[in-house]
Amino acid sequence: MSDTKPLDPKLLAILVCPMTRTPLRLDAERQELVSDTAGLAYPIRNGTPILLVEEARELPPVG
Predict the structure, then answer these.
(1) Which of the listed CATH numbers 3.10.290.10, 3.40.50.720, 2.30.30.140, 2.20.25.10 matches domain 9-58?
(2) CA-CA distance, 58 to 56, in Å (whole number)?
């Protein structure tokens, strides 16, 4: 996408999942912050993480 802005690495280092309070990992290709613990992926829109549970995408179960 050409309208995406990179996420500041300092911001990524302090962000946590609002549901579980665990660290998030960046999925740069999908422009999402992933909470493996909660099984949710939070969108990043124009460089801004949208950390609302109601905006998150549920991830398929692993295994």
Answers:
(1) 2.20.25.10
(2) 6
Cβ atoms < 10 Å from Cβ of 50: 13
pLDDT at 4: 65
Digit-coded pLDDT (tens) for 25-40: 999 999 999 999 999 9
Q: What is the pTM of this model?
A: 0.87
Domain coordinates in residue numbering, the chain: 9-58
C-alpha closest to that of 34 among 59, 52, 60: 59
Cα–Cα distance, 4 to 26 (Å, whole number): 14
